[in-house]
Design a protein that fits this description.
about 230 residues; elongated; alpha+beta; 2 helices; six-stranded mixed sheet
């Protein structure tokens, strides 16, 4: 197991030769609006996983400069070690064999005012299970003074063999099947109702036609009888 060591030579955003397009996810730039969303906490072994870290400013019009440091405590250990620092669009990775060639920046770009500080971990292994801390350091510039703030976002990550379905998807599938059954029963009931209604209407029409036929026949007989009497 690797431990925190000397920082590597700083690298630009295209570190590890992994362009954002190859991962199929676009990179964010300056934000017009910011919403803080919790990260997913379950990664699949051997897959790429995005750990979200979003820290919004309370006032978007305030000018700011931000940098971040990520730390990690592997499952079963007690100490946090730094794994990276991102500042001025430069990603500086620590020497740690667990993250060797696996960490890619996926946060804000083209600005010093970082609000999305997320990262990718490629080819996830069980050594990546544990607790992550995203330390956000922000310098706010006001008219007459500057103000430093810091926030720590904590993410607990579990690595599994295959993705587990969450309760929401299970409930959605159950509701879908229930809806299909209900609609099928309703459709059958409508068909039976319509069939009975058509059958009743047909029978009533047949009876009405029979009555008219008998009435015509009876009238014809009466006319014939009258003709005979006249003769």
């Amino acid at each position: 197991m690797g431990t925190e060591g000397k920082a590597r030579e700083t690298q630009p955003l295209g570190v590890l030769g992994l362009a954002p397009r190859r991962l199929g996810i676009g990179m964010s730039s300056a934000w017009g609006g910011c919403v803080e969303v919790d990260s997913e906490t379950e990664a699949v072994y051997g897959m790429t996983f995005k750990i979200l870290c979003i820290s919004c400013k309370r006032r978007s019009e305030t000018t700011a400069e931000t940098f971040t440091e990520w730390t990690f405590r592997q499952k079963g250990t007690e100490e946090f070690v730094k794994i990276l620092r991102y500042e001025n669009e430069v990603l500086q990775l620590e020497e740690d064999e667990r993250f060797e060639g696996r960490v890619v920046w996926n946060g804000s770009r083209g600005t010093k005012d970082l609000q999305d500080l997320s990262i990718f971990i490629t080819n996830v292994t069980y050594n990546h299970s544990g607790d992550y801390e995203c330390h956000v350091y922000r310098l706010l510039f006001f008219e007459n003074y500057e103000h430093n703030t810091s926030v720590v976002k904590k993410i607990h990550l579990e690595v599994v063999d295959k993705a587990n379905r969450d309760m929401a998807s299970i409930v959605s599938e159950i509701m879908m099947y229930v809806l299909i059954v209900v609609l099928t029963i309703w459709l059958v009931a409508e068909m039976v109702y319509c069939y009975k209604k058509i059958a009743a209407a047909t029978e009533a029409a047949a009876q009405e036609n029979a009555s008219e036929y008998l009435a015509i026949t009876s009238e014809s007989k009466e006319n014939c009888t009258g003709v005979q009497v006249a003769e």
